[in-house]
Amino acid sequence: MTTVLEKIARHLVSRTSFSATATERAEDAIVDTIGCMIAGMNDAAPRSVAAAFLDEINENGASLVFTGGRASRSIAALINGTAAHCLDFDDNFHPARAHASAALVPALLSVATSSDEFSGHMLVRAYLAGLEAQTSIGFGVIPSHYNRGWHGTSTIGCIGAAAGVAVFLGLDEAQIANAMSLATSMASGPKGQFGTGAKPFHAGIAARNAVEAALLAQSGLGGRLDILERPQGFLDLFGGDEATGWADLSWNEKHIIETRGLVAKLHPCCASTHRAIDAALDLQNEYGFSIEDIKRIDTKVGRSAVDNLAYPNPSDEMQARFSMQYCLTVALSNGNLSLRDFTPQAAKRPELRVHMAKINMTSYSAEEERGVERLPHKVDIVLNDGRTLSTERLHAHGSIAAPLTNDQKLTKFEDCLRWAGFEKSGISYSKLKSIFAEKSIKQLLDTIFEDRDKA
User: Does residue 181 fall inside a structural domain?
Assistant: First the structure.
């Protein structure tokens, strides 16, 4: 009998061509993630990870490390994955409830920058394979797995990224299945770590584990191929009370990136705040009120969003990213949110606290959410003049229902460069987009980052 992992691996091997839309969206996601990795390179979390392995980083290492130097593929993936996720500006992927690209792109780039044999075309195919693998794993356990408290980025993301790396390495169907099996034994990451440096580290360990699982499978190590569905397997231990399993797993002719897509973030904070932020800004743009005109704000969001947003009175920038009260107050004060709003000093601004106290957050009930994939986030704003303004959003900016414009993509990338202090370096959006036409990703990225280090 064919196991779930074998079924997934067979599908990944069989899908060898992709539409222009799928290819373009994959390229956008990869460049967006590289921008987030650059922006995050000076953050405390990746710097701490790099410092822990300083004796393994030098000029002669196999793979490019975004914080500087080169290291083994595993260490490069660990550091770069942490950098990709530390500012919470990287994309979201609903089918896996994961920051899919923050696990997948650093893992693939650690391999791509270790040898001249990996082309831009190969990178796109491996990325799309890894994304579809994350979808397939998530199919059997989402949202129950996430609601139970597991961080999908470091659990589902790890397993799916292992498949992507295995495809990138040219492994066969059996080896791809074994890579996912081994990654299942590495999957970890409780959501209780949100608001700390351990949260972006989850993306780092997912990327590292994905690389190591694929390399181990390539060398002949394997695990049980029924580990997802068997007793004491992934579904049994990680699934949660309402997980459905994979009996009905199937794939469309179109890739998931076309039908569901990723959500490229417009705001550098937890995605659980984004629909409420966008809804509130919709009202502000329509009615022209200021933060001072507001008497009270009531938000209604999903249960998992309430769990994620655990800091109504944040004490630092990490907690601020997971505070509905902080993020909504800043958005309505400034008309937007930017990376500069998430520094230790910005998070402690006393003038914001009086407005944060006006914001209430409630969630849908378990019964309301049961059997419904997605419910809108609702915002009611009561003004001092007595008016109550209400709206809701089912999709945030950056989703395929409300995609970022080309100008927004470029502006975000340039903001990431400025945040890292590299706006005058040799890095540019157009240069990174050109990697997909290259026969050697390594040569181009080495040149780009050598120019950066000389700037």
Answer: yes
